[in-house]
């Protein structure tokens, strides 16, 4: 699966490794990593960004790429999970990140489309959620208002809107940030990070391309690697989106439903004209037997409202949710501030990534914003602790279900399929992709949880913490520091 953005957007040139000593090593070339690096080079820091695949290969390149502070009915739900001071800090940080990103893009000649953001409801319960959201937004100083339903081609039970938000082409955003970084002497290097450790007064970053030494490291990879404790506290979510060509009028707003199943709408442009981008369906990573049904449901929903729509691209992306639904922007435990990280953007990576970059870069140069300090010191509420217990219980249940599926004898799957099974006394994952049958260990190397086959994306997905692996076991993303153990491969 290739996203529309990666198919039509610019690519980012990589650099030669050069010196293995630098001021800051940033791990991950998505929006968080590249914006952090760009801001640091502006302050004269020497920075190297390490990327295992290509810039935008993971969450940023698979986003629906809305830069907005109206995010469904998220704000009032956060107020029920976190302390109000932390939510106010989150709003201040979101505004600061949004403003700074748009400034950086403008300086590089990139001007995203400004659009109103709309949250809409299809049911009475959804309309109640919208009323709570409108009250929460206004109480936090955000000028949301009733309205927006008239811009949508289907009936609603209500809608609220926030003016002057933005829809991005995420690969164009990364290209602009990379140009800012590279013009100021920063480098973007392909290297898969295996370990980051404190050493002396700095850090050592161990990769498949050798070691880098720096004063500090920033983990900007969605799930920090390695970080067993952090990963256990996060829910990993996989969500899907698709682009469609249609001759019917398209909405002039960015829209998101508050009812389930979630539906997200925006527009985009390619050489042939305007496209509809729809998204929303998703699942906890490793816990959906057949994600293909989710995209099929999305297709049916789009065709119900745009009957001539023809899908051009479909893709998936991954994000992480904290117990209180606020991002974690801080330091890895035990690193004495030398290893910083950002995660938990809850499917709003453009806004969360920009905010994290401002916070982390500010902390490194000695000017951490007050809102960032409040956010990272916020503590846990009883409501968030209760959600965490639920997350851990659900993880144990998913593991038990995967184990039941794995007890049947291993067989050779059909093309595009994969399954767990017993091969003698060991549990294995067997898949057939592009005519090649491969067998890998059924256990994720992160903490030993079982994986499950994802037939939509042809990957092995961990049922516990969201690591994902290619059919041959190569690591794609998530908290695992290495791939699945390869047992057998045949053409």
Automatic annotation (TrEMBL):
Annotated GO CC locations: cytoplasm
Keywords: 2Fe-2S, Iron, Iron-sulfur, Metal-binding
Keyword hit for Cell cycle: no
UniProt entry tagged with the keyword Iron: yes
Domain Rieske: from-to ranges: 404-491
Pfam families in the cross-refs: DAO (PF01266)
InterPro entries in UniProt: FAD-dep_OxRdtase, FAD/NAD-bd_sf, Rieske_2Fe-2S, Rieske_2Fe-2S_sf
Any one GO MF annotation of this record: monooxygenase activity
PANTHER family with a match to the protein in the record: RIESKE 2FE-2S IRON-SULFUR PROTEIN YHFW-RELATED, SARCOSINE DEHYDROGENASE-RELATED
Protein name per Swiss-Prot or TrEMBL: FAD-dependent oxidoreductase
């Amino acid at each position: 699966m290739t996203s529309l953005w990666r198919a039509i957007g610019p690519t980012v040139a990589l650099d030669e490794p050069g010196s293995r000593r630098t001021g800051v090593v940033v791990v991950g070339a998505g929006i968080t990593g590249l914006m952090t690096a760009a801001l640091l080079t502006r302050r004269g820091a020497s920075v190297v960004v390490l990327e295992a695949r290509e810039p935008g290969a993971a969450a940023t390149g698979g986003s629906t790429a809305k830069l907005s502070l109206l995010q469904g009915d998220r704000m009032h739900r956060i107020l029920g999970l976190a302390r109000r001071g932390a939510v106010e800090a989150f709003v201040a940080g979101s505004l600061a990140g949004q403003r700074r990103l748009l400034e950086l893009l403008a300086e590089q000649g990139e001007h995203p489309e400004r659009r109103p953001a709309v949250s809409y409801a299809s049911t009475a319960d959804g309309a109640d959620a919208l009323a709570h959201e409108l009250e929460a937004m206004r109480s936090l100083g955000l000028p949301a208002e009733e309205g927006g339903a008239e811009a949508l081609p289907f009936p609603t039970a209500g809608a609220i809107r926030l003016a002057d938000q933005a829809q991005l082409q995420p690969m164009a955003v990364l290209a602009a940030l990379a140009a800012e970084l590279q013009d100021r002497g920063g480098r973007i290097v392909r290297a898969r990070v295996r370990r980051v450790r404190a050493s002396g007064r700095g850090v050592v970053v161990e990769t498949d391309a050798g070691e880098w030494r720096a004063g500090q490291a920033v983990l900007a990879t969605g799930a920090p690697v390695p970080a067993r404790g952090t990963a256990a506290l996060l829910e990993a979510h996989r969500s899907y989106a698709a682009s469609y060509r249609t001759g019917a009028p398209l909405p002039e707003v960015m829209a998101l439903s508050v009812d389930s199943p979630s539906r997200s709408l925006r527009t985009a442009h390619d050489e042939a004209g305007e496209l509809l981008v729809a998204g929303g369906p998703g699942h906890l990573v490793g816990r959906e037997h057949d994600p293909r049904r989710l995209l099929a449901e999305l297709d049916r929903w789009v065709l119900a409202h745009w009957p001539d729509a023809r899908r051009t691209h479909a893709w998936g992306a991954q994000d992480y949710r904290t117990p209180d639904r606020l991002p974690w922007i801080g330091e890895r435990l035990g690193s004495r501030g030398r290893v910083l990280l950002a995660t938990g953007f809850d499917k709003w990576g453009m806004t969360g990534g920009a905010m994290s970059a401002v916070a982390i870069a500010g902390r490194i140069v000695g000017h951490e914003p007050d809102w960032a300090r409040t956010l990272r010191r916020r503590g846990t509420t009883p409501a968030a602790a209760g959600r965490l217990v639920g997350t851990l219980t659900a993880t144990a249940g998913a593991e038990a279900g995967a184990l039941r599926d794995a007890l049947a004898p291993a067989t050779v799957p059909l093309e595009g399929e994969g399954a767990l099974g017993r091969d003698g006394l060991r549990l294995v994952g067997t898949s057939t992709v592009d005519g090649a049958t491969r067998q890998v260990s059924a256990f994720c190397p992160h903490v030993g949880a079982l994986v499950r086959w994802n037939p939509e994306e042809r990957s092995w997905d961990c049922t516990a913490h969201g690591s994902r692996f290619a059919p041959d076991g190569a690591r794609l993303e998530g908290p695992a520091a290495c791939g699945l153990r390869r047992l057998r491969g045949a053409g």
